[in-house]
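Methods — Computational structure assignment.
A single polypeptide chain was analysed. Its primary sequence is given first, followed by the predicted tertiary structure written as structure tokens.
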Amino acid sequence: MNSRRFILFAAAIALSLSQAAAQETNSGPVSVAIGLEGQHMVVLPGDKFEAAPVGDKSKLILRIQDVFPNGNAHRYDLRYFGFVPGEYDLIQHLRTTDGKTPTNLPPVRVTIHGILPEDHDGMLIEDEDSGLNLPGSYTDWLISLGVVWLLVAWPLFFAGRSKGQALGQVEEEAGPDLAERLRPLVEQAAAGTLNTEGRARLERMIFYHWREQLGLPEQGDPAELHRQLRQHEDAGPLVRGLEDWLHRPPGTAAVDIAALLEPYRKSSLPK
């Protein structure tokens, strides 16, 4: 009789402890921040449950870390992630073996809370007011600046395009006076020491100058231009002198270089 009473007493104690444990594990909602993993131990009766499949728009993801026998029930170690603040029932994220949502079970509530305060304006970096408010959007300003740049650069683009040097056109030279630019080349030509490149450069400078002075076409016949300059009162002496020096032995020509360059004084080549 005494042993029978002891067995009943022990069973009552075990039942009360089991109910207390179930009440502890199923107690009050737990709050977890968005994106952090929460853990909840819960005892549920019946067969084993599975975690519900996850969809693209799931606000909470539940997984079952482990399951332990607990008499006629099972103890579940549930892990979950929340993506939208709010209160959730983990039971709604469990499924039976045939894929159905469990019924007749008390809710297991958890709370997902945001990291930012409720009255936060959404700015993660403090926006310092510069005091300058410009009308229009950032894109509008970029487009406007691009248009202004194009208007300024377009004329410069055409002005800076290199032009092919026609016969008689000379490269840019430093110096204010054409005669002074010609002098070293003429002196070398008279002495018979001017090379082919220097002679070509000297002829280009002379031809270009007289094209401008006489208004001759830029693309005219070089031979005809040479003939006209050879007979010209001012251009002729230097042009004929170049021909004469070419056929003389070096250093034998008696030349008044200052007189030959006089027609080129106070003249400058166009840039």
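Note: The chain has seven helices and eight strands.
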